[in-house]
Write a structure and sequence with these properties.
The chain is α/β, with parallel strands linked by helices and 222 residues long. It folds into two domains: 2-114, 3-Layer(aba) Sandwich (Rossmann fold); 127-220, Winged helix-like DNA-binding domain superfamily/Winged helix DNA-binding domain (Arc Repressor Mutant, subunit A, Orthogonal Bundle). The protein has eight helices and twelve strands. The strands form three sheets. A five-stranded parallel β-sheet has the order 2-1-3-4-5, sandwiched between helices. Helix 6 (153-163) crosses helix 7 and helix 6 (153-163) crosses helix 8. It is elongated, with a radius of gyration of 19 Å. Bound molecules: calcium ion. Calcium ion is lined by residues 8-9, 48, 50-51.
Length: 222
C-alpha cells in the first residue's frame, strides 16, 4: 500500500510521513504540484491545496484525469472550502488543518475501503501475547496470567499502541498523536500519568521503558 503525500510544509509533512509509515504504509512525499503529477500512480494521494507552484484544485483535477487513484484533499482552516467543488474535481474526501492523526488514518482507511483497496495493511494482530501478558484488541481486554486487568479506555489504547511496536522507541509526539489525537505538540504530562498507571497495573508482566528525551519503549515482559 503506497501513499503519496503532496505537502510543501515540512512541519506538517515530516511527522505525517513518520506516522503513516508506522501504520504500515509506504509513503512518498513531494512538495509541489508538478512533482505530484510526475509520480507513478500510488494507492492513495494526500493533497495539500496550498502548494507553491500550481493551484491544488488544478492538481487534483489533473491527477483525476490521469487515473482513478483515491484522493484526500488537505485544506487549511479558513480557506474557502467548497465541498461540492472538491467532489466535482474528483476528491474522495477532505480534512481541514489542524487535523488529528487518528482522524486522518480513519479517513484514509475508509477511502481505501470504498475504493476496494486493502485498508487493513499495517493493522496489528487482534491478539498479542507477551509471556504472561495478553493484549486482545478485538475484545479490548488485557490479562496477566489469565486474569483480566482492568484498564481505562485510554490506558488500553496506550498499551495497545506500545505493544504493537515491541522493542521500538516511540516518541512522545507519536504516542500523543496516535492515542490522544491531540494537535501535534501538546502538553505531555497526561502521557506520563498513564504510563505510570500502566506500570502499576501490569507490574512485572510488562516493561515500559522510559527513553530519556525521546519517549517510551515497550520491551515485553520484564
Ligand atoms: Ca501548503
Amino acid at each position: 500500500m503506497h501513499l503519496l503525500l503532496v505537502e510543501d510544509d515540512d512541519t506538517i509533512a515530516k511527522p505525517l510521513v513518520t506516522g503513516l509509515e508506522r501504520e504500515g504504509w509506504a509513503v512518498s512525499r513531494v512538495e509541489t504540484g508538478e512533482e505530484a503529477l510526475r509520480m507513478p500512480v500510488p494507492d492513495l494521494v494526500l493533497l495539500d491545496l496550498g502548494l507553491p507552484d500550481l493551484d491544488g484544485v488544478e492538481v487534483c483535477r489533473r491527477l483525476r484525469e490521469q487515473s482513478p487513484v483515491p484522493i484526500i484533499v488537505v485544506t487549511a482552516r479558513g480557506e474557502e472550502l467548497d465541498r461540492v467543488l472538491l467532489l466535482e474535481i474528483g476528491a474522495d474526501d477532505y480534512v481541514v488543518k489542524p487535523f488529528g492523526f487518528r482522524e486522518l488514518v480513519a479517513r484514509i482507511r475508509a477511502v481505501l475501503r470504498r475504493s476496494g483497496r486493502d485498508a487493513t495493511a499495517g493493522t496489528p494482530p487482534e491478539v498479542s501475547e507477551f509471556g504472561r501478558l495478553v493484549v486482545d484488541r478485538r475484545g479490548r481486554r488485557v490479562s496477566v496470567d489469565g486474569e483480566d486487568v482492568h484498564l481505562t479506555p485510554k490506558e488500553f489504547d496506550l498499551l495497545s499502541f506500545l505493544a504493537a511496536h515491541p522493542g521500538a522507541v516511540l516518541s512522545r509526539e507519536q504516542i500523543l498523536n496516535e492515542v490522544w489525537d491531540t494537535e501535534w505538540w501538546g502538553p505531555t504530562k497526561t502521557l506520563d500519568v498513564h504510563v505510570a498507571s500502566l506500570r502499576r497495573k501490569l507490574g512485572d508482566a510488562a516493561s515500559i521503558e522510559t527513553v530519556r528525551g525521546v519517549g517510551f519503549r515497550f520491551a515485553g515482559p520484564a
